[in-house]
Amino acid sequence: MSVVDLSKQVALGIDIGGTNTKFGLVNHRGEILTKGSISTDQYSTPEAFVDALYEHIQPMIEKHCEGGIEGIGVGAPNANYYRGTIELAPNLPWKGIINFADLMTAKFNSPCKMTNDANAAALGEMMYGDSMLNQFPEEAINSKTVHECALKEDPVAIEVFRYTGQKLGEALANFVMFSSPEAILLFGGVIKAGDFILKPAKLHMERNLLPIFRNKVRLVFSELDEADAAILGASALVWEK
User: Fold this and answer.
1) Assigned architecture for domain 132-239
2) Which of 35, 125, 170, 174 could staple 156 via S-S, CB 3.0–4.6 A?
3) For 6-128, which CATH superfamily applies?
4) Which residues, other chains included, contact 192 with Cβ-Cβ below 8 Å and sequence gap of 6+?
5) DSSP labels for 176-232?
6) How far is CA 39 from CA 49, 53, 54, 86, 116, in A?
7) For 43-73, how does the pLDDT look when each residue is reduced to its tens digit (9 = 90+)?
8) Residue 127: which pLDDT band, with cuts at 50, 70 and 90?
9) Which long-range contacts (CB under 8 A, 24 or more apart) does 142-151 make?
10) Separation CA 30–CA 81 (nearest Å)
C-alpha cells in the first residue's frame, strides 16, 4: 500500500476582489509556495478574466507542482457555494449570474469550489491558523462557544459574528423596505453576542436601504429573558383589545 506524501499535494487559492485578485499555490500544511495578483477590473468579461488567470497561474503550476494541482478554491463577492456561481456582485465588473466554477474547471482542467470571500477568510483561519475554536469538537461549536472565543479576541469567532451580522442586516433591509417599521426588536440566544453582531447588522442594514429609509429604523435587543419571552408574549394576547 503506497503512502501519499501530503506535502506534495497543492491547491490553488484565489481571492477575487473588486479591484485586485490575489492567488497562490498552497500545500497541505498551509504553506504558500508562490503567489501573485492581477487587476480584476480591467477585464470586461469573466471569460477574459479566467484566461488572464490561466496565463499567470499555469507557469507557476508547471514550476511548483510536478503532478499538477489537487483543485481550485475561490473566494469571491456574492459567491454561491452550492451552485459555483457569482451572483449579482455589485463591486465586480461583470453583471448577472456567472457560472464561474465551471469556467475555471474547463480552463484549468481541475475541480473548482467557491465560497463568499468573507467565508474564505474565516475558513483559512480555521484550517491553518491558531483559532481557539479548533480546540472544540465540531458538535460543540455554537453561538455560546463562538461568543466566548470572540471575547478573547479570536479572529475567526469575530468574523463568524461579523458575517452573520452582515447577512442579518441584509435580510432586515428587505424587511424594512416593505414594512417600514419604527424599530426592529431582536431576541434569542445569539443576541448575547452584543455588538459583535449588532454593529455589522446595523451597518449592512443601513447600507442596503434606500435613502428614504436610512437612519429611520432602530435596531435593538430585547431585555426579556429568552426563555420567558414566548410565555409573556402569549399571555399578552389576553389583554389585547
Assistant:
1) 2-Layer Sandwich (3.30)
2) 125
3) ATPase, nucleotide binding domain (3.30.420.40)
4) 143, 144, 147
5) HHHH--SEEEE-SGGGGGTHHHHHHHHHHHHHTS-GGGTT-SEEEE--S-HHHHHHH
6) 9, 10, 14, 18, 19
7) 999 999 999 999 999 999 999 988 889 899 8
8) low
9) 143/189, 143/190, 143/192, 143/193, 144/189, 144/192, 146/193, 147/192, 147/193, 147/196, 150/193, 150/196
10) 22
CA–CA dist 222, 70 (Å, integer): 48
127 residue type, one letter: M
Those residues whose C-beta lies under 8 Å from the C-beta of residue 83, and which sit 6 or more positions away, are: 99
User: Which residues have a Cβ under 8 Å from the Cβ of 143 and sit 6 or more positions away?
Assistant: 189, 190, 192, 193
- The two counts, helices (H) then strands (E), for the chain are 7, 10
Domain boundaries, the chain: 6-128, 132-239
Assigned C-alpha cell, 23: 492567488
- How far is residue 159's CA from residue 146's CA, in Å, rounded to a whole number? 10
| Cα–Cα dist 17/121, whole Å | 13
Instruction: Count CB-CB contacts under 10 A for residue 223.
Output: 8
The verdict on pTM exceeding 0.85 is: no
Amino acid code (one letter) for 3 = V
pLDDT, tens digit (0-9, with 9 covering 90-100), for 149-183: 899 988 888 888 888 888 889 889 988 988 888 88
Angle separating helix axes 155-179 and 143-151, nearest 10 degrees: 120
Number of other residues whose CB lies within 10 A of the CB of residue 117 = 18
Same fold, 6-128 and 132-239: yes
Per DSSP, helices labelled H in 65-154 are 100-108, 117-128, 143-151
